[in-house]
Amino acid sequence: TIDIKNLLESVTFPYIEKVLQKKVQEEILDNEIKSAKIMVEKRSNSFWSLAKPENGLKWNLLGSIAELLYQLVNIKMELKSFEFTGTRLVKAYCDNSGWYIIDSLHRKVEKQYFEYSKWIQDEENLLEQIVSHTRNEYFVVVSELINRFLNIIEKEGLNIKGIESQSKIFFRFVKPFIGKEKIAYFLVDALRYEMGTELINGIDIKEASIYYAIACIPTITEFGMAALLPKANENIQLIEAKNNKLEIQIDKIPLRNRKNRVSFLQNIYEDSCVVLKLENILKMTKSTRKKIDGKELVVITSQEIDELGAIDNISLARKIMSDILGEIKHGIRNLNNLGFTRFVITSDHGYIFYEDIKDDLKINSPGGQRLDLHRRYWIGKGGADSENTVRIKASVLGWTGDFDFIFPKGLAFFKVIGSSQGYFHGGISLQEVIIPIIDLKFEEKVVKRKSPAIFKINIGRKVITTRFFT
């Protein structure tokens, strides 16, 4: 018998690729991750990988799976001796080589698996087993991190030492530059931290920094977008309004939707500010240029990811998650060409995206006097506690008011009619709560005025005898 690994250097027959890929898949299922990684690295740029696209697609997918599983093993080892405080946990997740990498890799695996499955049938069903195994391993670690983070928030609250608060982003990163330079403020719905790191890595300028902040809770658009507005650092409030409903306010002004938020911004900055959607700046029409002309602050909003995730279009939402980063970069270039030199890109909240949802993750609502209910949180008075939930007072989360929050533990969620099946936010997890703050500073473009060209025409003959001359 031939040791299959002896075929790693062979490129004689195309069938060898299938043999080696099967071996890698078997090693992944046997948790021989390091060996699988080595095999993928040796074959991913082989002749048959490049000559046959289906081989390249599968090697890339197997490589991402092996790397994700490898990172998950490392995090499991770190968690055994980890000293859990809010600051240490957030920094471990966000700093260089941080744990956020597992979210990035998981997103990559799901995208690559979707692209591969569109074109190629997995005849042996082995790849499907591996993807399911990888998802399970990922969510085991994510569940552990969620429960640890929940315990910390329950004890320490949201005011974690050394970690920026979402409500201070405008005050710290935007307000100081208004009137001094032309600034663009991007409010991107559901741009979680790992996506922010990918975005900044694709922007090649000297003055580019990424920071992280804790989003206000619950991590939904209505609250998060309000927390990114001017004056949010002073007096943002969550109050019990009429009809037993909750309402987010700044200066006692209700901020229920985008229209309210746009009006609030423009009442403060009047003619010096314009609010546009991301799609408006991708194709700079004459009308859009006119709206931007003379403005010191342009605010760009985007809700593509949230809208698609909420309607349960999982495959399209995954595509948009990748496309949105390119569109943001394109929008930045267009605004920079119009003289904008400073850019701040941030988000209202992150998200958890997963398939293979098990029935045992679905739990009943706490009941009681309900003020708000989403799949990842309940807000109200009274209600029943269970072993699958954590109750936290509003004051612990930075809100005034005589009501409580109840959050599902791990990846559990409350049964809510009409919700999508794979896209989640609203709760307390690092993936939902940690948002990026990207700060970019471009050099001012100096427009060099060219000297006027002087042309001199010499006629070859003294007498012109035709109607044309050259």
Automatic annotation (TrEMBL):
This is Uncharacterized protein.
